[in-house]
Design a protein that fits this description.
two-stranded antiparallel ribbon; globular; 6 helices; about 200 residues; 5-stranded antiparallel sheet; alpha+beta
Length: about 200
């Protein structure tokens, strides 16, 4: 807010972005419409990533390489945080991505009660999926669709459709790779589909 010279708007609490066609610039304005609210810190950091790195912010909680090739060695089971770009670590955006990813994994494995009545964790579904078969996979948040709408009074309204995708973790000579799972009866695929179906309700 200070860099954008709009500290005086902070007294209103919520801010939105307005497009000025004649000057090809944007302005920050107060708003009471939840759909138009923009977090200025998140917006600033996300734009910085796009302008400096030419990509979107990304976070992944990765197993150490040796944990998959030598699962019997419990000393290698700790996971490591991976931010892309690396300088995202320690920022508010990086922290939000980490917390969301970590909690999704906790929910999928049944560490907490499910956010919607009737949802079940992967462990609750695992008995019907080839008992005894080993697999390494995890859940990912994915952006299914994104865009910006413009209201009649030129307010820019962000639109993002987010879902969850199950991916199998494989290790080969080229390193680690996460490949989308397509088998519909896999416990992680079923959980991802269920979470995606209720995503808007869960986000509320």
């Amino acid at each position: 807010a200070q860099k954008l010279d709009c500290q005086n708007l902070l007294q209103y609490g919520l801010c939105g972005v307005v497009w000025q066609e004649h000057s090809k610039t944007i302005h920050i304005v107060p708003t009471v419409d939840p759909a138009a609210v923009v977090n200025l810190k998140y917006l600033s950091l996300s734009l910085s990533v796009r302008m400096k790195e030419g990509r979107e912010p990304m976070f992944s909680l990765d197993p150490k390489p040796a944990s998959l090739s030598r699962p019997q060695d419990r000393g290698h089971l700790w996971q490591v945080k991976r931010f892309e770009p690396r300088w995202l670590a320690g920022t508010c955006v990086g922290e939000v991505l980490f917390q969301a990813d970590y909690h999704l994994k906790e929910l999928s494995m049944g560490e907490y009660a499910q956010p919607v009545a009737g949802m079940t964790s992967c462990f609750d579904r695992i008995d019907k999926y080839e008992p005894g078969k080993e697999w390494n996979a995890r859940e990912w948040f994915v952006v299914k669709d994104a865009g910006i709408y413009q209201s009649r009074d030129n307010v820019l309204i962000p639109h993002v459709e987010i879902g969850v995708q199950a991916r199998e973790t494989r290790v080969d000579s080229d390193g680690q790779e996460d490949i989308p799972l397509t088998r519909g009866d896999h416990p992680l695929v079923e959980y991802a589909d269920s979470f995606s179906h209720y995503f808007e309700l869960i986000a509320e």
